[in-house]
Structure formats: structure tokens, C-alpha cells
Amino acid sequence: MAERSPTRLVLSRRDRDAALFDLDGVLTDTARLHAAAWKTLFDEVLRRHAAATGAPFRPFDAIADYRAFVDGRPREDGVRSFLAARGIVLPEGTDSDPPEALTVAALARRKQALFLAALRREGVAPAPGAAALLAALRRAGIAAAVVSASRNGAEVLAAAGLERLVDLCLDGRDAAALGLPGKPAPDTFLEAARRLGGAPARCVVFEDAPAGVEAARRGGFGLIVGVDRDGQAAAMLRGAGAHAVIRTLAEVAVAA
Ligand SMILES: O=P(O)(O)OC[C@H]1O[C@@H](O)[C@H](O)[C@@H](O)[C@@H]1O
Predict the structure, then answer these.
(1) Is the CB of 152 within 6 Å of ligand 1?
(2) Confidence (pTM)
(3) Contact 211, 68 (CB under 8 A)
(4) Range of the domain at 21
(5) Which family is this protein grouped under (predicted)?
(6) Mutation test of ligand 1: which of 27, 33, 71, 169 has the most ligand atoms closer than 8 Å to its C-beta?
(7) Which residue of 37, 78, 122, 225 lies most exposed, with the fewest beta carbons within 10 A?
(8) Tens digits of per-residue pLDDT, 159-197?
(9) How many CB atoms sit inside 10 A of residue 169's CB?
(10) Same domain, residue pair 38 and 112
(11) Domain-located, residue 189
(12) Is residue 208 part of a domain?
């Protein structure tokens, strides 16, 4: 039998109207698929850059670089943010750029193809404790939403079998349609809270990305919980504004 995680956080309907969850790496195990797709993409770009400039090839770190520059941000922002950190600025390009073009648009498209291939190959599983926590929130009358930068968010949520346990899914496609800026801007969290009828001070946010924690802090959310999946991000999550840090959702209980 799997060992039960000790409860580190208890939520109650008295204090909370709604719980807002990041998706990849918080409700589902898909952060590793995103990180691997980004690594394949960026290592190709960095190799080409090294060959063209004579500078040494320094690969993308799928843990540290992913967390600092890519995790939680809309796809194109991830391309710009990591490459800028390596001193590389690319033209924006357009959707009709050829796949090998060194433009933000072409790289974002290539990342999507790599991610979809990994998704088909490996599938999606709910993160430990995710389904049980969503069910407990529903029993307690605390509304639940997914707020994800990913334009694959709705499909990933459904593939994990968690769709029927949440009241709202606001993903990257919805944000683009509404013209809302992505994390670290607070707008997508604020929109989800508004739709669920919860004042930010009475909502809890669960996030594994510093950019997402920052978005929740800027939105004035009452309780911000960092999810430190790999046990290496607690300080960074607290520095970005997390009030508490857990390893998995199995550490969260809901008061009856
Ligand atoms: O490329 P997508 O699926 O639209 O996702 C955008 C971002 O969505 C976030 O949820 C992931 O943490 C990032 O890794 C990803 O880059």
C-alpha cells in the first residue's frame, strides 16, 4: 500500500470560497513532458548558436532553467525569456515560417509538436493526491478551477480524468481569446476567481512555478501554496510569495 503523506495544510469552507490550481506539475504529471520538449528544442537552438558564434555549447537545464524562465509562462514568452537569458534575441516571425527558422513563432510551433508527440507516447496521469483533494473540495462546497498558461490545458485535464472534478478550466487558449496577459501577470487568476464568485483574499492558489506564485501574489490572493515537486524549489517559491510550501497535494486536507 502507498504510504500516506502527513497532512501539512487544512483548508476550510469558513475561510475559502475557491481553490485555483495550476495544471502541469500541480494537478497532472505533465511538467516533465513540457520540460523534456523544451530541452530538445533549446538544445538544438543552442547548438546552432554555438556553431555559428564559436561560443561554447551550454545546454538547457531541464530543472533550473525550466523553472526560472519557462515554467508557468505562455509558450512564446517561454521562448523569449530563456533565450534572452542566454543573450539571444530572435525575430518574432509568423505562423508560415518554415520549421527550421530561428524565429519565436517557428520555435513555439516546434515545441508544440515535440510536446504532443511526448503526450501521445507517455500519456497523462493525475498528480499524487489531486483527485482526492478535488473531490474533498467539492464535498465541502469550495469551488475549484484550473488556471493554466498552456494552450493544451483543457485536453490535458480531460486526459487525466480530472475534468469533472473542477468547476472551471481557464487555459492559455481562453486567455488568448480574452486578451488576458499570462503569468506572472495576475489577470488569469483574477478572472477565474471572479467567475467562481470568490474574492481573491478568500481563495487559495496552488502553484509549482515561481512565475505563477508571483502572479498570485500580485493578485492579492489570501493563501498561496507552492508545490515543490522535486524538493529543490522551496526557497525560490517562498521568495516569489508562497505562504506555505508542500511536496504534493496529498499533504492537503479539507475540514469537514
Ligand atoms: O505550450 P503550451 O502547452 O501552451 O504551454 C505553455 C506553458 O504552460 C505551462 O503550464 C507549462 O508549465 C509550461 O511548460 C508551458 O510552456
Answers:
(1) yes
(2) 0.96
(3) no
(4) 9-30+124-254
(5) Belongs to the HAD-like hydrolase superfamily. CbbY/CbbZ/Gph/YieH family.
(6) 71
(7) 122
(8) 999 999 999 999 999 999 999 999 999 999 999 999 999
(9) 22
(10) yes
(11) yes
(12) yes
